[in-house]
Amino acid sequence: MNSNAAQFEEIKLLEEKLSTGSIPPELQKKAKALVERLLRISQSASFTQEYDSVSRYLDWVISLPWDKKSPDNLSLENAKKVLDSNHYGLDKIKERILEYIAVVNLKSNQQSNSQKAPALLFIGLVGTGKTTMAYSIAETLGRKFGRIPMGGMGDALQLRGRSRSYPDAEPGQIVKVLRRVGTKNPVILLDEIDRVTDEAKADIMGVLVELLDPEQNSNFLDHFIDFPIDLSEVLFIATANNTPGIATAVLDRLEVMELPSYSDQEKTIIGKNYLLPRAVSATGLKLSDISFGEDVWPQIVRPLGFDAGMRTLDRTINGICRKIAKLKIEGKATAVNLTAQNLKEYLPTW
Hints:
This is AAA+ ATPase domain-containing protein. The chain has 14 helices and 9 strands. By secondary structure, the chain is of the alpha/beta class.
């Protein structure tokens, strides 16, 4: 096959891709113009480079979920069950999610498309459950979940994308998440929005305003795609340790919810009912292989002083379970009852 025939086959392949994709008519018209330009320059030396650029662009355009949605699970009973099974307490946040589901329920009964997804901000210290609550909300609604780490982000183009006129052009994180989840109505977590770099803060906060404003996010423009993308059905959830690092304009577009620090009593309940069963399952043990005496919990809940979140307790319980799993495999123990007297033998050491 000569080079002209090969180039023609490559262009035909792009046309076939374009015809099978479900993209907006205006964008399809623009994409067809790019393919037609390839035909015109097929004899030039720049064909290969231009083909690679157009092929990559069309691959992104075709793979985006322009009209694909996941159906919402709007059962309040299911939502309450999922939230309660994953989180102890946090009643105000749970109530707000149930209210949102109820509103969507009523709107769907009225066949109204005017319901905009809220934008939530979870404020709390490290380990208080901000990220896991976002996962639970996605599970509750039956939606896909995507996470964008904002900590240390130093360029607004990481969200917005870079124009195709640059050699290293690529879409921003928003478009990448949409492609990865494959639906236009996922839950997207903007994690640690208070920890972007100072140099890029003004630009990044400007993009966040557009993302989170219900009047603007139906026409979000990624520089690489260069076509408005409707984000109005995305449920954005942001997290932060505190608010001083967040622009006022961004805060105005977020519904702020505080996740409180946990008391020792709450940690004990969470440790018994949530963390221990999860750690036992993760290490291959059975609940019958391990038991914690009541006098043990005060010692592992506060081993090094006050800790606002659950991470230290979670690591401690997992470390204990791993040690017992090792003893079981070595044949040195079948079932272990932890007490205040023998606890030190099983605590993880670092």
